[in-house]
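Entry 14. Structure prediction run on the chain below.
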Amino acid sequence: MSWTAHLTSFDRRWIYLLIALSVILPMFFPVSFPERVTEQTRSVYDAMEALPEGSTIMIPFEIWPSTLPETEPLARAAVRHAFMRNFKIVSLSNIGAGGPSITERVLREEGDAFGKIYGVDYVNLGFKANYLAVLTGMGTSIRSIYPTDHSGTPLDSLPIMQTVDRYDDVQFVFAISDNATIEYWISIVGARFGAKIGAGVTAVMAPKLFAYLDAGQLVGILGGMKGGAEYEKLINRPEWATRGMGAQSLVHLVIIAFIVLGNIGFIASRRNKAAE
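Output returned:
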């Protein structure tokens, strides 16, 4: 059998196997590819770096469990950066199905890694229904919406909340979202109450937000796993986003290689038939 016949009759099961290995192996044996930091990612980093050490920021987790592979790495990168700068983090979620527990898990794990204390260095306010009323109400008084934290502890008993009761008391909002609530953070919390907003969103959502970025209503955007990998590079802490991008890039290379080989085999076989 000629080499062109081998290319055109290649068993597709080998392709599936190579794709699977390209996804799995980089998670355990990281593969490094050059990662160019985009302007919108660097803008989020610069905004965080410009804040005085010990500032208070707000990080809402508006994400569903289904998007965690894409959104959790960038969320962790932002939380790590905040703890590296000794920021206080006030967090919440307008997603009732899983949002508060995702928030709790990420903050607790990263807080333990940096030796941070719950109620002193970070707090999870949890979930309240009717996000439009929640976002508007917190501009006047966070306590009017969240009298207690996620576990039922009164806010007045938490040291971190002694000086925080409205958006004016936080220096930056980094909203992590996989849905339309990000636009309400921009239009209500940013435009109405004057908060500086950065966004961490899925890759498919990022292009839509560039209009807000160009209008100055967003400081910057972390778009999907790539945005998370870029941020990990900026804070010099390569973790799951970097590994995920390694796997994704390797899979893309494998797919491109098979496309090229398939086309070479197809063109060569047609020429052979024409020559006959």
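Residues 70 and 225 are 5 Å apart (CA to CA).
Filed with the rest of this week's runs.
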